[in-house]
């Protein structure tokens, strides 16, 4: 009997979550659409289809999707290849860092997390964004990021060539 009441509570909670989610998306669904909305496409479609959908997302959207619900999180967390494309994009700026992390056995996701902000800051430094700044006070707040000696060496070389 307790098991049955748990299932009823679970269904009721799912309906509330689905309805709330649809309202947040500014959708005014009919009762039929609410029932459809509460179904999770990750659970409905083959894994390959879900992975194809997730692979089309940008980094921010993929991170947001990973915290949407348990099934999405499990799917995204269990497929490291979803992060590979984004990591290879960051590699254009941080090739040595990405190659070192991958060589040390880090997953694509962890490698991306370790190097994403570093690549943004490094790109700005290498592109000369901070070349004409004469004091640290003039640097924007997010212009610094913990980087290793080799990375700062690359930045210094770029500055000396300017």
Explain the overall architecture.
The protein is mostly helical and 162 residues long. The protein folds into two domains: 1-39; 84-161, no CATH class. The protein has helices at residues 2-24, 31-37, 41-44, 47-55, 59-66, 70-77, 81-91, 95-103, 108-126, 149-161. Helix 7 runs parallel beside helix 9 and helix 8 runs antiparallel to helix 9 (108-126). Residues 1-37 have low confidence and may be disordered. It comes from Podarcis muralis (Wall lizard). Residues 39-86 form the F-box domain. Pfam families: F-box-like. Keywords: Repeat, WD repeat.
Q: Class by helix and strand content?
A: mainly alpha
Give helix and strand order, one letter per element, not per position: HHHHHHHHHH
Shape: elongated
Helix count from the secondary structure assignment = 10
């Amino acid at each position: 009997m307790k098991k049955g009441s748990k299932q009823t509570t679970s269904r009721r909670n799912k309906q509330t979550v689905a309805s709330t989610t649809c309202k947040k998306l500014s959708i005014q669904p009919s009762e039929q659409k609410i029932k459809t909305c509460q179904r999770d496409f990750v659970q409905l479609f083959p894994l390959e289809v879900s992975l194809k959908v997730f692979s089309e997302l940008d980094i921010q959207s993929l991170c947001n999707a990973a915290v949407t619900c348990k099934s999405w999180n499990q799917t995204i967390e269990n497929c490291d290849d979803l992060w590979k494309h984004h990591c290879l994009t960051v590699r254009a700026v941080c090739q040595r860092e990405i190659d070192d992390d991958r060589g040390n056995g880090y997953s694509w996701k962890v490698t991306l997390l370790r190097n994403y902000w570093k690549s943004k800051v490094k790109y700005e430094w290498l592109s000369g964004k901070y070349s004409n700044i004469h004091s640290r006070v003039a640097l924007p707040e997010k212009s610094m990021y913990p980087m290793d000696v080799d990375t700062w060496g690359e930045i210094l070389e770029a500055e000396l060539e300017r």
